[in-house]
Amino acid sequence: MKVELIQNPGTEWEDAERELDARGTPLSLYHRASWARAIARESSSFLVAVRDDDDRCRAGFAVESSRSRALPGHRLLSILRLGVGIGGLDDDALRMAIDTLRGTVARDRFALRVSVDVYGLDASARSRTGRTLKDAGFTRVPTTRSYERTLLLDLSPSEDALFAALHKNARQGVRNIGKFPVRISTAGSAIADRLQALSDETRERTGGEHRPIDWRSFIEMSNAVPDRSRIAVLERTDISGPSAIIAFAWGCAHGDVAEYSESGSVRVSDMKISTSYALLWDLITWARRGGARTFDLGGVTVGNTASDDPLGGISDFKRRFSQQEAEVGEQWELVSAPFRARIAAAVSRSASFIRSGLDRVRG
User: Fold this and answer.
1) What is the mean pLDDT of residues 349-362?
2) How many other CB atoms are there within 10 angstroms of residue 240's CB atom?
3) How far is CA 255 from the centre of its chain?
4) Number of other residues whose CB lies within 10 A of the CB of residue 72
5) pLDDT above 70 coverage of the chain, percent
6) Residues 6+ apart with CB under 8 A from 144
7) Sign of the dihedral defined by the CA atoms of residues 332, 337, 338, 343, in that order
8) Which of 81, 186, 300, 332 makes an SS bond possible with 119, Cβ 3.0 to 4.6 Å?
9) Which residues contact 51 (CB under 8 A, 6 or more apart)?
């Protein structure tokens, strides 16, 4: 085996994807050229490709590189959804790829740290991934970028059987949209700003921070690769314009596993309608028809609607689709420039403190 870094999401990257698809070990959406192009305004990406003796790609993962806001001129590297069994990675291929990446980072004096979101449905695969990262100098840190626990839905039963197994509130919520002047469609570029507004409103309701997303690029990606990304929207048919979009849900396909990635909605005062049930069911059927075997509901918290957990209501909503809770994620980090990383962390904390103060003043 040998390891190659493919710097641009072009033909060579896509050729590697096709070779892995043909092997039956497809790359996660987050490691594909289409995703790298979609995030290009915020981050650059490169593919770490492991090749065999015939120079064919046998495994790989993508690394995203973004600018440090705290320390100008420096970069933060990140890897999403890494794990043994994903993208053709076995223990040997992962070890070689991580060793190559570590050497590359060590020679780059502008790289501050590498953050890795480990993902795996199998505890053994996660443990082996973590052991490889630890041997390479990574340290496990609290999970802040993704989630450790989630709810999983087995997609092997028929759609009728899946629907029948849902909680009665979920079944009712899916059926009820037929009583109102609404329809489900997919997002077009013209509603990118509306999706951001819906996302902001939802995060404000649950105590989350504002998270700007390049929706136009992700919409274009979804339209280009509809089997890998779907942004479903619930649209009123009795009014026109951006305000007709009252909810959305985004699903991402990662080979055998599809993920409930993002959602947003606005409270509707003139219709007693649950907007999220039908959209999530739409993503579940889309994932099943696309060949996914498992649907990941995008993380779950321990709280419920009656608790102090601001996300408890969302977790209860997800539990009406599945009761199979599982641990799937870990976060690891390699600090390549410790002194400068500490400076950057101190600047970030100061900026966060100032923003919090300004928010309190505005409040």
Assistant:
1) 45
2) 9
3) 14
4) 7
5) 92
6) 331
7) negative
8) 81
9) 1, 2, 3, 4, 57, 58
Rounded-to-10 torsion of CA 34, 38, 41, 44 = -30
User: For tokens 């039963």, what's the residue?
Assistant: 157
Please state the three-class secondary structure of the chain as a single string: CEEEEECCCCHHHHHHHHHHHHHCCCCCHHHCHHHHHHCCCCEEEEEEEEECCCCCEEEEEEEEEEECCCCCCCEEEEEEEECCCCCCCCHHHHHHHHHHHHHHHHCCCCEEEEEEEEECCCHHHHHHHHHHHHHCCCEEECCCCCCCEEEEEECCCCHHHHHHHCCHHHHHHHHHHHHCCEEEEECCHHHHHHHHHHHHHHHHHCCCCCCCCCHHHHHHHHHHCCCCEEEEEEEECCCCCHHHEEEEEEEEEECCEEEEEEEEECCCCCCCCCHHHHHHHHHHHHHHHCCCCEEECCCCCCCCCCCCCCCHHHHHHHHCCCCEEEECEEEEEEECCHHHHHHHHHHHHHHHHHHHHHHHHHC
pLDDT at 341 over 80: no
User: Cβ distance 258 to 297 under 8 Å?
Assistant: no
How much is the pLDDT for 359?
Answer: 47
pLDDT band at 216 (very low <50, low <70, confident <90, very high): very high
Distance CA 48, CA 258 (A): 23
Q: What is the pLDDT of residue 306?
A: 85
Contacting residues for 264 by C-beta, under 8 A, at least 6 apart = 195, 198, 199, 200, 201, 202, 247, 248
Nearest partner of 117 among 153, 63, 68, judged by Cα: 63
Question: Which tens digit of pLDDT belongs to each residue from 232-263?
Answer: 999 999 999 999 999 999 999 999 999 999 99
- Give the per-residue pLDDT at 109: 86
What pLDDT, on a 0 to 100 scale, did the predictor assign at position 347? 42
